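Fold this complex.
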Amino acid sequence: MPKRDYLDDPNAPAPNSLVVAVGAVVRNADGAILLIKRGDNGLWALPGGAQDLGESTTDAVVREVREETGLQGRVAGLVGIYSNPGHVIAYDDGEVRQEFSVVFRVDAMGGEVRPSTESVNVEWVTPDRVPDLDIHPSMRLRIEHGLADLPTPYLC
Amino acid sequence: MPKRDYLDDPNAPAPNSLVVAVGAVVRNADGAILLIKRGDNGLWALPGGAQDLGESTTDAVVREVREETGLQGRVAGLVGIYSNPGHVIAYDDGEVRQEFSVVFRVDAMGGEVRPSTESVNVEWVTPDRVPDLDIHPSMRLRIEHGLADLPTPYLC
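Structure:
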């Protein structure tokens, strides 16, 4: 479980870890975006998580969508690569992880939306509701890019 | 130094590491592509290497281009994300690293091409010469995508 999130904070500890994480922008026919309420910190977020050894990055995002939301997905494109070195997450075991996340556009192909142990709530959220939800700034940036449908992937 | 490269080999060892690496497709006005001959294995490759802690992924590719070729670059786009779990590299110290590489299109903005300790040769290579060079298949795929100028990033 994350101990603390630091964003552009001069007092942040130095990172000692870089992990490939993935996120999914899934939208329905009405333009709503699929968000989860995370079990670990209570914040709303895109479905996603760390890539496992033995799978590709696209396999990882399809697996995370299935595990966290119940939906079967198919990768449809890339929203961006997020690697701001000013965003680090400190964990209880001493790991200080620097942000690295690949966010894909994923089409929902089937399945039924349901929560999981990692996602206590899973909802289709209309874009007008997004500003009112409790969302970490680094995640809000990704959601805004997903809703904006950028012409080229965001790269940093 | 890599001990051995395995590609879709049923006898490959199981991976125990995933490291963010970057590569650069840099082309000149004549359409030639910038390739280096690696000091560690003698193969031709795109300039690139592992992302360091404290830098973004785009910072990393600009740094690697400068270190390995002498050129100052600017990120212009994304060629693809390469994460074939069937490609692993075993090292002498027991690390078995699974492929994970982000390949960017990089514009050369200045500087003079020169070799380095990691790149014993640095050359602008015309596309017709690429098939004759000794290049690992996973790297050849990236070079071909860079030369083909794919309409959307390659994702796996």
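Residues 9 and 86 of chain B are 7 Å apart (CA to CA).
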